[in-house]
Each structure stands twice: as structure tokens, then as C-alpha cells.
Amino acid sequence: MEQKLVALSGNEAVAYAFKQARPHVAAAFPITPQTEMMHKYAEFVANGESSTEMILVESEHSAMSAAIGSAAAGARTFTATSSAGFALMWEVVYIAASLRLPICMAMVNRALSGNINIHCDHSDSMGGRDAGWLHLFSENAQESYDNSIMAWRIAEHMDVRLPVMVNYDGFIISHTADALYMLPDDAAWKFIGKYNPAYTLLNPEKPITVGPLDLTDYYFEHKTSQLAAYEKAPAIIQQVSDEFADLTGRRYGFAEEYKLDDAEMVMVLLGSSAGTCKDVIDEYREKGVKVGLLKLRTFRPFPAAYLAKVLGGRKAVCILDRSASFGGQGGPLFTETRSAMYGQQVPVHGYIYGLGGRDFDLRQAATVIENLKKVAAGGEIADINLLGVRL
Amino acid sequence: MAVNLKQLTQNEDLLAGGHRACAGCTGANILRQIMLTAGKDTVMGGATGCMEVITTIFPYTAWKTSFIHSAFENCAATISGVETAFRSLKKHGELPVQREKMNFIAFGGDGGTYDIGLQSLSGAMERGHNMLYVCYDNEAYMNTGIQRSSATPLGAHTSTAPAGSVKQGKEQNRKDLTKILVAHNIPYVAQTTPYHWKDLATKVEKALAADGPAFLNILMPCTVGWHFDPAIGMELAKEAADNNFWPLFEVENGVYTINHKPKDPAPVAEWMKKQGRFKHLFKPGNEHLLEASQAYVDSEWKKLLKLEAMTAE
To answer: A4-248 with A255-387: one CATH topology?
Structure first.
């Protein structure tokens, strides 16, 4: 497949990807750093390049609520948000998943208030990790674009029927011009295809009731059937990703394994920091240090068995969280990964880094590797460590 | 356009019996009346509240049209999404069955409308969706146990502003939501009650025919929250219009019409006396609160007359 090499910001790339899915409805409310993505989309509509109906709501709560109404009516629907906007949606984010509505959402990761901060960390989406959405993470504009194409196929698959959020780091990805390959419109459309809703509010000959009161006698069974979808989702994600690889040559799974084959030491993280780590890993590899990176793509569903397998038998593993879990045992990626590795003899430690957009630089990545070396040699380190902060 | 009773009685009842409303509930009656006029090509949306709870306890539904409930404060936004989906699917030729027009009706109680859902409602009205929002106003949060709302009238006893030895129920007048909706400059805004079936049906018809958003505020006497004999709900609805507590009026493209001008309005206290929520106001020492209630009703009525005169063409 011939693809066009373009220079776009992450926000622009995602706007293009969503446009190529020909959604019927988009609901939007501005919040930095998501704004530019919706500006771009509004331009498409204003110039007749997209026939999506936009609902320019008065809050993120209404953005998700309108998206729920639209998706329940059988329309392909998306929205986008960041940080406090996602926090305001909170209540209805759960409802979108519980009603099994395949809404797609661009989640431009930004720190939560307070204090107010507009820069990247993952505290926003991590706050909603148990809300029932599928969470895909991206390292750069290319992955943001690719995830935004694949998201529709995953969300709308009959075995899944769940909303998907495509996470990409605020400013670092959203506002940085980056080179990426884009599918031609017709190829993207052929890959994504037309949406066939299972149910719609808009058929008066087949009326349905959506969102009834669900009490002690049925709620649990409904949650059980929802839980089953997360069991089925991994296979669908892999299937869609494989088809995407056949089309584009870009291969995705639950994670990217960077120099992992013979790695004795492994860093695990999400998002744009992977690029920095890869550079530093390359330097250490030249010095003969067997270190590698596991960059997780699917945080939900969490690929526990996969992680246990890939990380098993290593000499040391560390997990980097770009969000804190206040009062908990390290960040969410740490606790879940360590739990996945329960029963293994691999020493695992964690870091909290990059909160509020604090740069993750080469030196920090090198510190992480130096610590991994120490642990691999039998040294001790705290369970949870802070990285890049003045103490 | 003219509503006739014979026709209404022949229309299909789209709210099935067997729902869980209290005996004497006038809210379920309001929904049935709306549906008789709206007909089958309608999507209903309910805010969390009595009418949502009583019509859709899984695995049952009383709705013979499509219905969606998502949350308490977002019914207007939710239905605005359904309406937009309809327009978009129609434009793309992808409707499941062809319809030139469908009705999109959101409803909520006064809690879901005057209070927690006001922002969502305001946004949807301003955006100009082709939808009707109906508030069934029973003047408190009845579903959660009769807490005061911004629609609760002065002096009414509620569970969060109770009458006690020091305080005498709600200390503020209710706010005028209908006029807030008028200020949105939408094509159609009106008030009515379930007793006035012809007025109600006419207003639903006009609201659904309007080119753009419409709003109906319907007083809903609540036997549980107002403390009255379940047999007299409709009577109380009638009297509220006869004593100017709840005037029947409509605002069509900014022009006010009062649909019912009582010749000799009875004192509001007579109406209040039939309701347990005002019982304490009839104790010695609380006369000033009855007077204040009357004064509020009188002054609002005068304002309404002025608005009608002012906007007359």
C-alpha cells in the first residue's frame, strides 16, 4: 500500500484519522491540549471535507452525554478530551462503556488539577482506568494516527462493543510536528468500513429501552457480561492489528518489544518517553549492557499473561509511571505489572516520573538503567522511586 | 392543528400500564398525555428521577417507543445527541427506516431541570436542536425523598428544609425557570398542568411542530411530597391555574399569551391548606409567610400580564 509521508502534529494526525472513519457525529468541548485536534476537525467540516455533524456542547459532561445519545441512536461517534475535561465526564464515561457504545475518544494526556497544569502526565486517563474503556497508548504521531484508525474496528467489533480511548501525550505528541505515513482516504475507509449498529433508538418499528434501572436481581449479571467483553478484546485487538500490518507494514500488538530478546533488564512504560529510552538503550547496548524496553500499547485490557511471559526470567524489571497513585503502592502500571508477575522471582521496582510535564530526559533514562544494573547484580532499591524531581 | 378529545382517545397509549408510579401520581399521567399527542415516531429521554424509575425497572419497560436514560443532569445533552444522530444519518441516507421527521423529547423533574440539569438544558436549547424538553415540576426532589429544590415554593416543608421549632420550611421563593427558557429566545416555551388536557395536548403539538427547541414546564402535584389525598391531584393542578400559582401561558417566538385568566382568583392559602407540606404555615405566628406567598404569586402574575401586553403585536 502506497502511503503518503507527511509532517503533522499528533492532534492533526488524529483529526485526519477520525475524518477517514467518516463518523456521523462528533461532540466537542475545548480543553488544552486537545483543542487543536477539534479545531482541525471543525475546519474539515467547514470546508466540506467531512460531513460529520458536530455538537459543540457547553461542557465535557455534555460532550460524553451527547456522544452516548448519538451512539445509542446508531451513529458512529467520537469526542476528544484531556485532564479536567475527562474528570468532568467521569460519571458518563462509565455509562458509555456499560451501555456498550463503541465511541472513540482522543485522550490527549494532561496532568489533573490541582494545582492546575496544562502539560503531560497520565493521571487523567489513569483515573478512568476502571471505567470500562479500552485504553490504547501511543509513542508518537504515527502511532496516534494508527491507533485512531484501528480504534473503530476494535470498538465496533461484535465481540467487543466497547468505547476506545486513544491516548497520546499532551504537547509532546499533540503539538509537535512529526513525520508519519498516512493511508489514502479510500484505503483507510476500506479498512475501517461502514458501521453496522446492533441497536438503534431510531427505528420506531423496533423500539428499544436503553439504560433502565438495574437492581440487585440483574445488575451483577450485566456487569458479568460486560466483563466477558474484556476477555474477548485482546484477540480482536490482535486480529485488527495484524490486518493493519498487512495493509501498512506497521505491526502492533499489546506492546512494542524493543531489544528484548536477550535483555536481562527491562524497562516498562507507556507513551512518548519510550523514544528517549530507546536512544539511551542503544548507547548502553553499544557498551554491552543487555537492557531492553517494553512499551505497553494496551493498558486496557491489561495483558497480564503476556507481561508475565515476556518479563519472566529477566534479572531485573522496572516500571515507569507517569502518574502517582496517592496513598497506593506506586503508580497503576507498577501495581498491575507486579501483580501480573506474582510468583516469579524477578525483582521489580518502580518510578514515578514526568508529573505535570516535567521533562523525561536522557539522564533520567540512564539513571534508570544504572539502577537496573545494580538490582540485576543483587543490589537493593526501594520499591517506588521518584525520577527527575528536586528533593 | 386543533386538538380534539375523540381523536386523542383513539390514539395509541404508548405508556403501558403496570409501571410503578404511586397511586394518584400525576406524573405518569403527564407522560401518557404527551405520548398520545407525540405518537410512535418519537424517542423519549428521561433524566434520573421518578418517571425514569417507575417506567423502566429491568427487565420491564413501560415504553412502547424508544427510550433512553443515561444520568441525572444530562438528559438534554443526551437527547441532543440522539437528535443530531438522526439528522446525520438522514443526511447520509442511513436511517434504519425512512422518516422525514421524528420527535425527540427529553424529560426531567424539577431537580433534573431547574438544578443539576440546567447547564445541559441551556446548552441544548442554545444549540437549536429540534427537540422538546419537558419538566415535570413537582417542586422538590421526590425520587430521593422530598428534598428542597430551586422549584420548591416558599414555606414548603421538605426533608432538607423541614418545618421545625425555629425554621418554617423553605426560606426562599422558587426561581422562574420558564422565563429563563424564554430568555434563550427559542421558538416555543409554555407552562401547563395535567388537568388542562386540551391545553397540554395543544402545547405538545405546537412544541413538536416548532422549528427548533421547545420547552414545557408542567406542574405535577405529588401526593407523596405535597401530602394530599391521592384522589385530588388533578383538582390541585386545576386550582393552581385558577389561583395564579401556576399560570397557563405560552411564549411563541417571544410573544406571550396567557391561556387562562381566572376572573376571581381564589386566595393561594386555600390551595395550600389542602397540602400537608404547608400545614405549619397555618399555625399562629406564621401568617406573614402566607401573606408573602400570596404577594409573590400576585407580583409574578402582574409581571406576566405586563409581559403579555408588552409583547403583543
So the answer is: yes
